[in-house]
Amino acid sequence: MARVERILIVGGGIAGLTLATALHQQRLGAELVERSPIWQVTGAGIAVQPNGIRVLRALGLGSAIEHVGTVIRSWDFCDQQGEVLCETDLQALWGEVGPFVGVARPQLQQVLLAGAADISSRLGTSVLSLTQDEQRVRVEFSDGDTRDYDLVVGADGIASTVRRLTLGVEKPVYAGQMTWRSLAPIRPRSLTKLQFLLGEGCFFGLCPVGNGHTYGFGNVTVLRFHDAVQGRLARLRERFAAFGGIVQDYLAALSSDEQIHCSAVEWVDHVAWYTGRVVLVGDAAHASSPMMGQGGCMAMEDACVLAEILRDASSIESALDTYVARRRPRVEWVQQHSRAVAESFGLPPAVRNAALREQGNQGMYDRFGPLVPSP
Fold it and tell me: Is position 201 within any domain?
């Protein structure tokens, strides 16, 4: 078996914390560093789809997520006013894989932190340099410390420092959309479903999460720009003023500019996932357009698969080869179909809406069906 006694995880988001828990479960020694001085999250909510719940259940965290989140049984695509174009029964689609759970990101983080509690972690610490040979990776940290590891895992997101230091500067690609995410203390019109209301060159999504809250996300196809915090809520309401009442009820429940997180939609692809003894997982390797909502679930699957492979690996090289061979086809499927969904949303509304009425439910089965089997 390969000598994998010291593993460094760089990044304490979904990918890093899930990997920490998975490695501990496989009895592999790991430690984690996170550049932020405190545990914090970016964004608002997330849909943990059944393939992600399958990973969390394997790690003993599934029931905790279901407790703090809300099980969602239907995913609807609607026109701008809220008329349903197609609806998909999520339990029928996913079968016995698990539930589809909407959860606020802070609650998800707390569950993942509890799962990784036995892994040594250092906050406010970033990686300055990585030097490797056939035996180890030497890492220089921002706190002045230098340590050697058998393997370094970059779980540090779309702007990955590990990717930049080892594979060169790979800038994320702007996907052509800006997005506004928020949490509101309301279930507009007693919402129980995940709903996408589709306009012309834009859409607004609503996802129930725990504690009676709703995760809202607006998306607009536009040239990239900076949306200042001051006045953001008023501008968001204006951008989606033509949308139906359920969106207006949601927006009315927001009370401050600071509740709204604005960012550009970006992706990372066509990069190597590892070099030597340094490997990437999650968004650091393959950030995708969010149109399938699979980014977090793909990161969870990466973590579980990598830990499983490392447990029985004959060498680091063979382990990482196997990891890429198992994960890349599945990830590329998600990237490809996420982009296809984004392109379909850009069609003239009359054409797009007619297609969704006729083929929308079947399209959901076509996109998500290959993710039903275990990774």
Answer: no
Tally the domains of the chain.
1
Q: What percent of the chain has pLDDT over 70?
A: 99
User: What gap in Å lies between CA 241 and CA 233, rounded to an integer?
Assistant: 12
- The residue range of the domain holding 315 is 7-172+267-371
Which DSSP symbol is given to 360?
Answer: H
Closest CA to 203 of 139, 282, 259, 265: 265
Shortest CA distance to 72 belongs to which of 58, 55, 57, 52? 52
Q: Are strands 84-89 and 146-149 parallel, antiparallel or unpaired?
A: unpaired
Dist CA 356 CA 375 (whole Å): 29
Q: Which residue is listed with tokens 């393939």?
A: 51
Amino acid (1-letter code) at residue 24? H
Gap between the Cα atoms of 186 and 203, Å rounded = 20
Half-sphere exposure of 290 (CA within 13 A, CB side): 25
DSSP 324: H
In the predicted structure, residue 170 carries a pLDDT above the cut 80 = no
Reply yes or no on whether the pLDDT at 78 is more than 70. Answer: yes
Instruction: Tell me phi and psi for residue 202, to 5 degrees.
Output: -160, 165
Closest CA to 362 of 86, 99, 77: 86
Element (H, E) at 368: helix 349-368
For residue 324, give both structure tokens: 């890429």
- Whole-angstrom distance, CA of residue 80 vs CA of residue 140: 52
Would 125 be classed as within a structural domain? yes
- Residue 124 in any domain: the answer is yes
CATH of the domain at 303: 3.50.50.60
Predicted pLDDT of residue 367:
98
Can you give the pTM of this predicted structure?
A: 0.96
Identify the CA nearest to 229 among candidates 269, 265, 263.
263
Determine the average pLDDT of the residues in 282-293. Answer: 94
- Whether residue 226 is contained in a domain is answered as no
Indicate whether 154 pLDDT > 70.
yes
Burial string for 173-192 (b: 16+ CB within 10 Å, else e) reads eebbbbbbbbbbebbbeebe
Query: Which of 55-64, 145-154, 163-172, 302-311 has the weakest average pLDDT?
Result: 163-172
